[in-house]
Design brief:
Number of domains: 1
Shape: globular
Largest sheet: 6 strands, antiparallel
Oligomer: single chain
Strand content: 25-35%
Number of strands: 6
């Protein structure tokens, strides 16, 4: 089972993610001090679980659903991590510092602030 987070404000208007079954673990709202001018100052965060067999499909759906600029979603299990940006998916083994750095560099190209590039290592 993979666990992850998606910020609901990061989804394109009109997005419906209904093809991949997910389990909602928690929904919360936060004031965000690191929000860019393209991001709202309050985020609605959905914490979820997805079955191993559905992880790749969810990553692909999210890559088409995330808005630009400056958004991503991530999810992981004990062995690997998915980091999903609009139009691009990074999938790598946990602890792979080079792969993590590559995904973070891509996030910087999208003008994602450094404090937001903080997904699970």
């Amino acid at each position: 089972m993979y666990e992850g987070v998606v910020i609901l404000e990061s989804l394109k208007i009109g997005t419906e993610l209904s093809r991949i079954p997910i389990v909602v673990r928690k929904i919360s709202r936060y004031d965000v001090s690191t929000a860019t001018t393209d991001q709202p100052p309050v985020w609605s965060v959905l914490e979820f679980e997805v079955e191993d067999s559905q992880a790749e499909a969810l990553a692909q759906e999210l890559s088409g659903a995330l808005d630009s600029p400056g958004w991503y979603a991530d999810f992981h299990d004990d062995k690997e991590i998915f980091v999903v940006f609009p139009g691009r998916v990074f999938r790598y083994p946990r602890g792979d510092a080079a792969a993590r750095a590559e995904a973070q560099a891509f996030g910087r190209e999208l003008s994602i602030p450094e404090p937001q590039l903080d997904w699970t290592a």
